[in-house]
Amino acid sequence: MPTIVTVVAALVGAFALDRLDVPAGSLLGAVAGVAAVNLLTGIDAVELPAAGRFAAFAALGWAIGEGVTGETVRQLGSSVDVIAITVVVLVVVGALTAWAMTAAGLTDASTAYLATSPGALSQMAALSADTGADSLLVTTTHTVRVIVVVLVSPLVAAWLTAGTAGTGAA
């Protein structure tokens, strides 16, 4: 019975948030559905077996890999400078933040770095599970980050656009 409840909760949550067009809705919905089982019922959600976890991560890799084509690589070639600067700044800021968190005794170095590193929620969750970091903290941090970015980005974009109006910048 707990297995059925867990599977149904994950699928219903994934379906609901996907249909509501929530970014990463299927992932976040499954998280919310299974978390709800743990928090709101007397049933403990069933842990995903190793084979299921492997299949899920392999499917995730497939989904990411299918977007890499010759055309996307050619298009990215014209933006190498922007990409390089962005990646370096994000990695350095993440590393410095992780160092500060570790020095303050807030968490271990691996968890701190994965929680503060740039990356997609699903990939960082997978990486934290594979490296023995605190997957709950890493996943929660990235979930909150994604939600905040989704909510704040339109406001920041409008502010930046208004600030560059009339300057010739776009």
Short précis:
This protein is mainly α and 170 residues long. The chain is 77% helix and 0% strand.
Report the sheet with the most strands, covering strand number, pairing sense and barrel closure. Answer: none
Number of helices: 8
Which parts are unreliable, with pLDDT below 50 for 5 consecutive residues or more? Answer: none
Question: How would you spell out the order of helices and strands?
Answer: HHHHHHHH
The total beta strand count reads 0
Share of residues in strands: under 5%
Distance between the termini: 56 Å
The overall average pLDDT, rounded, is 87
Indicate the structural class. mainly alpha
Shape, principal axes of CA atoms: globular
- Helical percentage: over 70%
Summed up, the domain count is 2
Oligomer: single chain
Rg, Å, rounded = 19 Å
How would you describe what is shown here?
21% of the residues are buried. The chain has helices spanning 2-19, 25-40, 50-65, 70-77, 80-103, 109-116, 121-131, 135-164. The longest helix has 30 residues, at 135-164. It has 170 residues and is mainly α. It folds into 2 domains: 1-48, no CATH class; 81-170, no CATH class. The chain is built from 8 helices and no strands.
